[in-house]
Please model this.
Amino acid sequence: MINSLEEEVRKENETKENSKTEVNTKITASLIIIGDEILKGHTKDANATFLLGKLWSNGVEVKRTVFLPDDIDVIAKEVLEFSRLNTFVITAGGIGPTHDDMTYEAIAKAFGETTYINDQISKCLETITKKKITKPLEKMARIPTSSKIIIGIDPITKQPMQFPLLQIQNVFVFPGVPEYLRKSFQVNEHLFTGVSRFLLMKIFLSAEESTIADALEHVNSQFESVHIGSYPMLNGMYKVKLTLESEHSTALNSAYEELIKMLPNDIIVSVRKCLPNERDVHQEIFATKSPVKHHATFMNSLSLMDFEHYMDVNNTSPLSEAIKCACAVFNQTVLLYNLDEVCVGFNGGKDCTAVLHLYIAYLKKMFPDNTNKLVALYLECSHPFQEATDFMRDCETNYGLEMIAIPGSIKEGLAKLKETHPKIKAVIMGTRRHDPYSNQLRSFSMTDKSWPQFMRILPILDWTYCEVWEFLKHFDLPYCKLYDQGYTSLGSEKNTLRNPALKLADGRYSPAFLLKDGEKERHGREKPS
Model:
């Protein structure tokens, strides 16, 4: 009788546990970033931003992120609490050889364990340092007794990683050096993946938050599985960014449709629907009913999330490599010059437009507190296209540019710039090697000795015609509408025609981005007599 009762209770408990497992499929995590230097502002944290983006992309819901001092008791308390509340915990930092590295000891204390010197890690350290284990290195090999050593495989070399990832119960211990953390996460990313993926939608508005509060409250109350966020944006481009997020595409699409019905059409400046992950950062997931007209605004400009993804060392796509090369030039630029010593050459053409968008995204990322207007230099040609002039005015307004327009030849214009803006020392330009007289240029090329002396900075010098269009179209960035009418290289009305290579049988022209042969880019620039 007793055995029968015990068996019945056991089966009932198993049923409850299985039911609980089926319902609770959400994968959650919390992050612990460790280091006095971060809390004091001596070191800028980059690990939390990276991990949060990766975990979100992998469908992991991050509950909390905390920054902790180098204090064993404080770290142990948070590790234990987070471990109980989450599927897993990630720590970053505090595993070096110095006195203030105490993450292993703190985690051991959290779980009531001791530490010991692990032979496998000792050998790893000897291999890395190429010398016998020393007392400081011995500290790095002293780990909690229940530690699981995870040896990831480098996807490039196909060899085991030099230093392992440690797991203590459901806590994963990463190094604090961003380069090492990213590499370790990359090779072990399969361990940090949720059951489903989060779907994200962004809506950019030209209205104040107070005018849309009622609509947001209504939609939020109707769709429990959709999380709605509202964020004021003080960048001169739009006033509010709304985010709609859910694991369920049907619910998200319904919430979007309901919200769009309640918002005035004239305040919706852009809608972006995407699933940010390693495979496709801008995967379209819904049919849009957005009233936004193409090129009506600048709200599709390269966002910081896009920027982070394409600057990721693990992203090796051709577009990512092109963007990284351009940003490497920008990095050198800000080392050589103050921001107010640099202007951007801009005449509405596709190349300088790509440079303008990219440089503004770079400045937002690297200098978020900078409030100075970006100076744009327009060396006016005679008989400009009105469409190009209108586009430049749109850029001036929407990006808050300080536009300097100087008539005359390029040489005369630069001489005038010397007089009117003596502080400017360098001009960022959209020159590419395919342009006339550009074969011998380098990314930093001083003007000829007989010219006014300015450094010409050429971030997309080695981009191809197709790469420029891939960049503009991939991010749906605004550009001069003449390019949609068959023009591929803009000069003036006197020397520019539609490109004959794009002419269709019915007399119409394909848009510039459909030109596959970049060698024919300038075929519309010679007007027949």
Remarks:
- The chain has a mean pLDDT of 84.
- The chain has three domains: 25-191, 199-274, 294-529.
- Residues 199-274 form a domain with the Alpha-Beta Plaits fold (CATH 3.30.70.2860).
- The radius of gyration is 28 Å.
